[in-house]
Amino acid sequence: MAEIKKVIVLGAGYAGLQTVTKLQKILPADEAEITLIDKDDYHYESVLLHEASAGTVNYEDIIYPIESVINQERVKFLKGEVVKVDPHAKVVETNNGRFNYDILVVGLGFVSETFGIKGMLDHAFQIENIQTARKLSRHIEDKFANYASSKEKDPKDLAFLVGGAGFTGIEFLGELTARVDELSNKYGVDRDKVKITCVEAAPTMLPMFDDELVNYAVNYLEERGVEFKIGTPIVGANEKGFLVKVGDEEQQLEANTSVWTAGVRGSKIMDNSFEGVKRGRLVVNQDLTAPGFNETFVIGDVSAYIPEGEERPLPTTAQIAMQQGESVAKNVKNILNGQPKEPFNYVNRGTVCSLGAHDGVGIVYGRNIVGKKAAFMKKVIDTRSIFKIGGIGLAFKKGKF
Ligand code: NAD
């Protein structure tokens, strides 16, 4: 009898979970031994991290146990932190053992990238995972509580700095404006005393959107008290707030809460596992394998996928990660059946940037949408991803209907 092949999937984010949930559906029993490895035993919805970070939703509402979506007779879940991948020897090293594989899928996700800016890791909050979200949402409420209960009030308790006006920055600002409304009420604080400043190095924001959408988002946030400082690079962070460059001068912006949303990179494990990795991302072949390794796939935020005939990689999104997971599951089956692999074909259904719970801007099937329609589409997209991974049961459990 032929030896059963070992398939290992690293990371239970959108890419990895979509791979295993598809594999458990399409692979006949006993065709392969499938192991999913993650350092946590839960999946978190990274597309909702800005909500849990601002505190407009509870962190528990954006996580679910990995074992609730895998068929444990078909897929073995192993809790462990990946330390290194050796694609030459086909070995994965974790803090919970070393494992050999025949086919590997690397979907180890993103971490925050501070570009070596001094003080940023020590003095600014990051939007990176459930722990950073819990820390930040608690801290925001603490600042209101402290302001309300102090005799000598510190205006910096009500000042919030957000670094970066990309997708994460704008979506976080949308939630933050809603949270400060709620906390001002709760603690009897004058909302007009709250100061939210967004600092962006580039001369514009949300570069993937046109002026109509950008202006809509900016007006929405400005009406809720956000001040934008664009064309203003952050060059440092300290206990007082951000240091920014204005012309040739450095200026200190002061706040007791500074949040860095200005960059992400792929997992650091990529750096010591593959050659040619830049900011944690590896340029992959059209079938999503790592160059030189026919049975090692790299997907999600650790991969840089350049569609045939184009020059730049697609941006990293949950939508791409999930489509890559499906494509890889089919190719794993093809490898096991001795069939040729198929190239990945990305279908862009659109992108929505939320502005709080009830508003947003986006492009869906090539058309601009704003307001409630965009917020609705964002919910459709989120529900779709929950449904595709966990089926109708999980969608109900997470209150998506
Ligand atoms: P990003 O890199 O897209 O944006 C970071 C922003 O920070 C940029 O505008 C950049 O100019 C600015 N910046 C960088 N250095 C700076 C500095 N020193 N000072 C001031 N500003 C600085 O990062 P992101 O917003 O976290 O997005 C990461 C990826 O995830 C993107 O591909 C994005 O499309 C995707 N994403 C998608 C969604 C969604 O679909 N709803 C949500 C979040 C993120």
UniProtKB/TrEMBL annotation:
It holds the Pfam family Pyr_redox_2. It catalyses: a quinone + NADH + H(+) = a quinol + NAD(+). Residues 5-325 form the FAD/NAD(P)-binding domain. Its EC number is 1.6.5.9. SUPFAM superfamilies: FAD/NAD(P)-binding domain. GO terms for biological process: aerobic electron transport chain. This is Type II NADH:quinone oxidoreductase.
